[in-house]
Amino acid sequence: MKVALVHDFLIKLGGAERVLKSLSELFPAAPIYTLLYDEKIARESFSKDRVVTSFLQNYPGFIRRKHRYLLTKMPRAIEEFDFSGFDLVISSSNAFAHGILTPLNTKHLCYCHSPMRYAWDWVNEYRKENKIYGLKKMLYTPIISYLRFWDKITSDRPTKYLANSNTVKQRIKKYYHADSEIVYPPVDTNRFKASTSNENYFLIVSTLTPYKKIDLAIALFNKIGRKLVIIGDGPSRTYLQSMANDNIEFLGFKSDDVVKEYMENCRAFIFPGEEDFGITPVEAMSAGKPILAFAKGGLTETVKSGKTGEFFFSPTIKSMEDGLARLLYNEKYYRPQTIRRHALNFSSDIFNKKIKQQIKKI
Q1: Are residues 23 and 134 part of one domain?
Q2: Tag placement on the chain: N or C end, fewer CB within 10 Å?
Q3: How many domains does one find in the chain?
Q4: Are residues 274 and 352 in the same domain?
């Protein structure tokens, strides 16, 4: 069976790229098609000789780095890939990859991280976060309308959808009117061991962008004065550092080995934003650590209140403080091995097994 993989962009390494990495290991001979590829960032996980890029890769670097300005060209770019001769194409999509054109006899299994959020349920939030007002809004609105139209009419191209959570399954049903089956993303749970001790700090591991709501956690820890360690980088880092007190430490981007060490030694893991699934909280649970999470999105499926952590129910300092107070009160009841056993339900081995089952089905 000849297999190809498709992914929207290889310009950062996040949760979606971890899914692609697992798929690429399942099918080591499969080429990886993507709209844009940043060799400096992605080469360690996805070697250049395996990657097939679109015509957008020929644009100057300063334009590729501002890839939002290429949005209107991306539908045509994804449709120009040629999958003749492939028996199966697996797309890893949160924007464009599901819209590929495949021959009649080629099966297309789409692993959907989410329908294009900035065209559907995140339109207003995206506009606010990126300060799209006035003339920018006049230009932005017809572009998003076009992308929404294209996204809808291409939604029936996959043979079958897989959703990374029940949250995404509901979005696929609402926006694409399509059924899907849930296959949770792979988490390398074997990388961690359940730790019974801690060094009395709380931990965030995240890209530093507005929708992650790291500013909410900083505001809370400014108020209560407890130690918070933040691992990760992104466009909001300067702003977040400017609002943080001395009890909050920014470490920037760190290797997996360093992240592992901090997870195994933290008191609890903090996840203040809404996520489609959320791999890092499951990694922290693999290390036996409780989670404080916002009660919306994929974490409502992975965190068990009172057993593996606690929720807060509105994006406010007061609600988050109430959730943290419950977590600290219940610390004596949490069992690291119990938390870890729950995390094993989302292991890479289970992901690989379910992907193989889905391929057999189609």
Answers
A1: yes
A2: N
A3: 2
A4: no
